[in-house]
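Hey L., structure's done. Input below.
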Amino acid sequence: MILKTVANVEEALKGVHNGMTLMLGGFGLCGIPENTITELVKMGVKDLTCISNNAGVDDFGLGLLLHKKQIKKMISSYVGENDEFERQMLNGELEVELTPQGTLAEKCRAAQAGFPAFYTPAGYGTEVADGKETREFNGKMYVLEEAFKADFAFVKAWKGDEAGNLIFKGTARNFNPVMCGAAKITVAEVEELVPAGELDPNQVHVPGIFVQRIFKGSNYEKRIEQLTVRKRD
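Output:
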């Protein structure tokens, strides 16, 4: 059995440098690799291309990297909660590639499975399809989308073992699973790290074969992105 554990986040991020393409799991503020993002800020790496469903908020998640202007390009589906993102994009300081959410997930999954590209009907007839090959299948038009090519994938799981097997909790099982194995190196940070063999195999969402490094994270904030409560009568 190959053990994948590393001592801390600093060791987990060895090899990350300027100009790399990084995948970061999560949806909104749920299931994002908080410890990894904090360390990327400390490292000061820049000119990054970040692939993530969204760009965090101004003071949390990928918003922390945006404030330091460490991100050169964002490949995302939803970016509506970040004022700094909007400012940089409108001022031409940040390159943005908006991608339909299902296409974003499938571009990750294709990379994970080793497929170079796939056809999807999403985006046909819109600017999403500009410059891309299109083809008709059974009377319907499809757009050829290439799989992502990333250097690192950073994911956050609820529980993992020393062999890299992962279990996600609730809605944190979003973009995290499809990003595992979709880059040259996958790093998982977990809330709870247990010895190999302790997890019930029937409960494992991602097998360790897709993970190269795993470490126990800490100080997770578990924020609520939008809190709405009913007024008292």
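The domain at 9-112+148-216 is CATH 3.40.1080.10 (Glutaconate Coenzyme A-transferase). The chain has one domain: 9-112+148-216.

-- N.
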